[in-house]
Write a structure and sequence with these properties.
Structural class: mainly beta
Order of helices and strands: HHEEEEEEEHEEEEEEEEE
Helix content: under 10%
Largest sheet: 12 strands, antiparallel, barrel
Number of domains: 1
CATH superfamily: Autotransporter beta-domain
Shape: globular
Number of helices: 3
Distance between the termini: 50 Å
Length: 342
């Protein structure tokens, strides 16, 4: 059933409420972890590694702790997925390459809640002019505000994972500062959750993580509503379809002391042909999707008695299937620095 014009903020709250209403009675969870549960989890196997490269973990920063993530993600375009679900591609009218450095600062507000502020920059070039006649451009990228709440912490003695609720507000600072839009309208696929390049967006997500020594399994589901925004054609308001991002990762810790391990990450990006506000979409194509797979490595550069540590990860995402979007590879490198813990 299609919902007609629900307010986006109320809809976002409803998604979280539905998740709580569904999971709580069915699985018997208490939605505030007890001191005993927290202590048991912190005593369990959980080495201080980088973890997944593409998105936020279900875990939160400890109360009063700061950490910063600095990363660079790239895009090397090589073709266009055809208008049918497959791995077959054709020559693209443009093959944009891009590099997007970014940083996000997290703070543990309580032992159950983290907040974050992210800023980014982007440079792109293409072998074919965009609608404005540009073959390259660069400048400030989107800015993001993040709130993450972990109501369920995993039980090391059972199957129960950690589960977090995720809210993100994306601000189009790139549009405010006049950064030219990248062909195709998106920053690299490896930016999860995604939003349209020149649109403000509200994202709601559900995150999980489970430690099974020597493995970690994590996953995310995000739904993003993009507010109407400017586009490459002057005077035209863009009404893009809502976005669904999914992510699943397997981490294998090979050496706990050095933090050496490998990761396999699977991510998808799907633009729907509909919007939560009921307004008709006017983007071309009306919908698309991408499927990407990344192998990666992680390593811990330093750990200190104070609890501070520097961890890193590197990998390359390959788009292995899709429809109506760019085929590309996405090299990326990430560093996280955790400041002294209380």
């Amino acid at each position: 059933m299609l919902l007609r014009k629900p307010p986006p903020f109320h809809t976002a709250l409803s998604l979280h409420a539905l998740a709580i209403a569904f999971l709580s009675p069915a699985l018997g969870f208490d939605w505030v972890p007890t001191d005993k549960e927290m202590a048991r989890y912190r005593e369990s196997w959980n080495p201080p590694t980088h973890g997944t490269s593409f998105t936020s973990s279900a875990d939160v920063a400890r109360k009063g702790q700061w950490y910063v993530r600095m990363y660079v993600q790239g895009q090397i375009g090589s073709g266009q997925f055809e208008n049918n679900p497959s791995s077959k591609t054709t020559a693209s009218p443009f093959s944009p390459d891009a590099v997007a450095p970014a940083a996000i600062l997290y703070y543990g507000l309580t032992r159950h809640v983290s907040v974050g502020l992210g800023m980014s920059w982007i440079y792109w070039r293409s072998d074919h002019p965009n609608a404005e006649g540009r073959t390259s451009g660069g400048g400030i990228g989107p800015t993001s505000l993040v709130l993450k709440y972990r109501p369920i912490v995993q039980n090391p003695d059972s199957w129960r994972p950690s589960i977090s609720l995720y809210t993100k507000v994306s601000l189009p600072t790139n549009r405010w500062f006049g950064t030219p839009e990248i062909p195709g309208g998106f920053t690299p696929l490896s930016r999860v959750p995604s939003s349209r390049f020149e649109a403000a967006a509200l994202t709601e997500g559900l995150l999980f993580r489970k430690n099974l020594e020597p493995f970690r399994i994590s996953g995310n589901l995000f739904y993003s509503y993009n507010l109407p925004g400017a586009g490459s054609e002057s005077g035209v308001t863009v009404y893009g379809g809502d976005l669904i991002n999914t992510h699943l990762a397997l981490e294998h810790v090979l050496n706990e002391h050095t933090g050496l391990g490998y990761l396999l990450e699977l991510t998808t990006l799907h633009q729907l042909s509909t919007r939560l506000d009921g307004h008709p979409t006017n983007t071309t194509p009306a919908s698309f999707w991408l499927l990407g797979l990344q192998p990666g490595l992680e390593y811990t550069f330093s750990r200190y008695e104070s609890g501070a540590k520097l961890v890193s990860a590197i990998g390359v995402m390959f788009t292995i299937a899709g429809q109506n979007d760019i085929r590309a590879i996405y090299p990326n490198v990430s560093f996280k620095y955790f400041f002294d813990q209380n």
